[in-house]
Amino acid sequence: MKKFIHKGFTLVELMVALAVSSFLMAGITFVYIALSESVDTSKELENAQEVLRYSSEVFTRSLKQTKSLPTIPNATSLVVQQETEGATACNSTKPAVPFSETFTLVDSQLRCQVNAEAEQVLLTGLEGISYRLNGDLVEITLTPESLNVDMLANGFQIDVALSGKILEEALN
């Protein structure tokens, strides 16, 4: 009697192993794609948060220390007159009083110009910006660049009260 010795796998075993490994690879690929998209969205939100934080800081400092109503010469510009002694300008200097700050959006960059000095780039990563005066409140709508989250497509609104102007009017 001869014993039959198996050396290798049958065709059916190989096909079953190939099908199982294909399903596993497809599952791993889908998980990787979902994780990659999640990381990209997280990075976009992190960048948008930083743009909003810094924009809010700059506009709040400038608008709270002014004693006059800012002007909006066009859709992407805001001019703030500063008459407060020791006021800090948008470029972090403390120029002689009075001075004006002009905020503009050019090529996804928020820029600032103090008086007739050269413009400085404050931050990059803005797709759009708009300003609106509502009494003693300035409403600033910012749209961060490359933010693909549908519910945030209209941008973020920052409301800044003109505290210096309000106090000046209350004291006079």
From TrEMBL:
InterPro entries: N_methyl_site, Pilin-like
Keyword Signal among UniProt keywords: no
Keyword Aminoacyl-tRNA synthetase: no
Keywords noted in UniProt: Membrane, Transmembrane, Transmembrane helix
Stretches that traverse the bilayer: 12-35
NCBIfam families, A to Z: IV_pilin_GFxxxE
Protein name per the record: Prepilin-type N-terminal cleavage/methylation domain-containing protein
Species, as recorded: Pseudoalteromonas piratica
